[in-house]
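Structure tokens please, single chain.
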Amino acid sequence: MKLNTKMLISILSTSVIIFVLTIGYISIKSKNNALNNAINIADSYAKEYANMTKANINVDMDIARAMAQAFKGYKNISPDIRMNIYNDILINIAKENNNFLSVWTNWELIAIDSTWDKPFGRARFTVYRDRNNNIIFYSDTLNRSGDVVTGAYYGMKISKLETIMDPYFFSYTKRKEDEILETSVCVPMIDSNEFIGIAGIDLSLDRFVEIIDNIKPIKNSFAYLIANNGAIIAHPNHEFIGKLFSDVLAEEENKFKVTKNINEGKSFSYFRKDILTGHEFYVSYAPIIIGKSVTPWSLGIVLPVNVIMAQAEKSFYIAIIVGLFGLVILTLVIWIIARNISLPLINITNILKLLAKGHIDESTKIHISSKDEIGEIAESVNTLVNGLNSTAQFAKQIGENNLDAEFSLLSDDDILGNSLLEMRKSLKHAEEEENKRKIEDKKQNWITQGIAKFGEILRQTNDNLETLSFNIMSNLIDYIDANQGALYVKNEDDDNNIFYELKSAIAYGRSKILDKKFKPGQGLVGRCAHEKLSIYLLDIPEDYISIKSGLGKSNPKCILLIPIKLNEEIFGVIELASFNKFEEYHIKFVEKLGESIASTISSVKINEKTAKLLEQAQQQSEELSAQEEEMRQNLEELQATQEESTRRETEMNGMVDALNTTVLIMEIDMEGNITTVNDKYLEIYGLPRDKMLGKKHSDFVISAKFDSNMYYKLWDDLKFGKTMKETMYIESHGVEYWLLSTYTPIFDTKGKALKILNISINITESKQQEEEVKLLLEEANNRAQEFSEDQKIMTENLEDIKDAHEKIEEELRKEIEKLKSQKG
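Here you go.
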């Protein structure tokens, strides 16, 4: 085909492909952009309306917070007029705010009633509107017998946090038909970090329904409001209001964990498909964090995907029509341009064929006089010929290894010229890297040979620390070309006086050798050992050290101190001085060598210590006979102690049998459950034994005359090991009884309380004999406690003697094995 035909076909076909790809890309991109824009709009709407809802409720929370702050000054107002003032405030707030269902406060009785001393009980003051919009005030008290730990009030009492309660149905008239879906904003009243009550406002949730119904960012979109527990506050389908999201939209809840995400205060979104219509929707949620509460709500926006994508599809069809019209015009333009270009290019093509065959000389230049683009092409071809000549000469010079040959680029975009320059640069870099590698290999070989050399020295002289130290330092100074060196080894014979002792010094003057000991942190040696880090000094004090020779003396250029350590344990310090600076590989070599030296020094010390232990073994063997005789005497004393314990146990059992016929005896485990009860107790309560065993002890003793606080204090003292006495009042089958009770903890051998022994005497008929009965009871209790203590002491003695005997046998066995191996 002719050039103009090829240009027409190739450019047109390429244009068609680009058109199809572009239209496809634009279509997909526009759809994605439309969807992303809609998602962003939905997310922003969700946040905007969530903030509006938040601001709406925060106004009410601010009023409740102001009430709580105002009421904190209750101590400064006389109790006679305090509540009248506060109640007037509640009434005024209710009158000024028609949207409030109720305004109320709850006060801890202990805070407002000086006669109340219990940590529970509260007074409630409420102002609300009746069906005729009249302001009604009432008050009452609650929880006088104890807090309801599962209630919302108790939760706020413990957390001391602002709270917006989950939606609930409530009727102030107590009639079902008057129930209103509402919530409460609550602010704790705190005085000196002590909880004294709550100020709160009840709000109808109907006001949010109209707001939510009007949220429609695009056609067929809608919104809904959900509380922290998943209850639906507002929804276009009013039948859903007041119900849990998980009940009305169970599949959506199970798939996307909506309630969990709302409870955690997250912003989240997802796509879902309507089962009935098959339409897809995008759902976006924004959290509503009210005041300082930790129970966020969430606002959801629902947008239909088909509405979002309608505009994008319309734009796609318009783009196709415009593109087809453009292709027709493009075809005509390409044909005209191809015709005007093809003829001049024939001459240029012939010249380029010669260049393609490698024929480069002045005769290949083109002579075209036109000043248009074709002329520029001809000029460029001529420039290319000149450049190829220059490049060929430069390549030849590089081939002859003349890496410094001169070369000028045709331009900054001269790819071939730049490639040749990069090639020359790479060749130079490769040559430099090769030289560096040789130097590094030389250093590594030096380190490897040094490690091998000193490994042999350490193996040959590892039986004497003095000889080992001298051999290490004398060889090390020669190997790294230092001038002086010293080795300090850790001396820990006395745990209270650990120091680093000079074991070998090479070429040091007498004044330096006199400093033979350094404590951790003292001097450079002590500092190096303490910090476990190498010290390399180039600025040496004049009076620190000097290097002497036959011609005089001079200060060294550098000092190197290396800690000898193994597994972060310091065994000593190497000090080196030199006129020449130490290279980095010298320092790494000495540090690596330090680990091997530390291992060898450790072995030498262990061998020396082993020798001392062998000397002590004989002495210990002689002491074993005396220890065996002493153990035999201890066993005889133990047997006597056991016989005495048996006798006391027999006496105690007899005493308990005697007491069973006269007093009331009960055993209680540490959880408060009755485990044993005698017949006397059963007679008092008039119950069979199986009706008391396993029951809580508190069920039989807590009453108006012995309340729960007294009972819990009694058990707190018992758990601390105290023996407690109490006069107990009980009523059984209409008959009153007074019991003088003693509660004694029974301990195991390790001092842990196992159970409680309760011994009681019926003093109902004879109060006048109270003192005599009390003495008898105390004596019985003391004997029981004495028996427990004797039993504990006897058990502890048995364990101690047994442990001592096993320890002596183990030590004797080890020493005999050592002596046998030594003799062998």
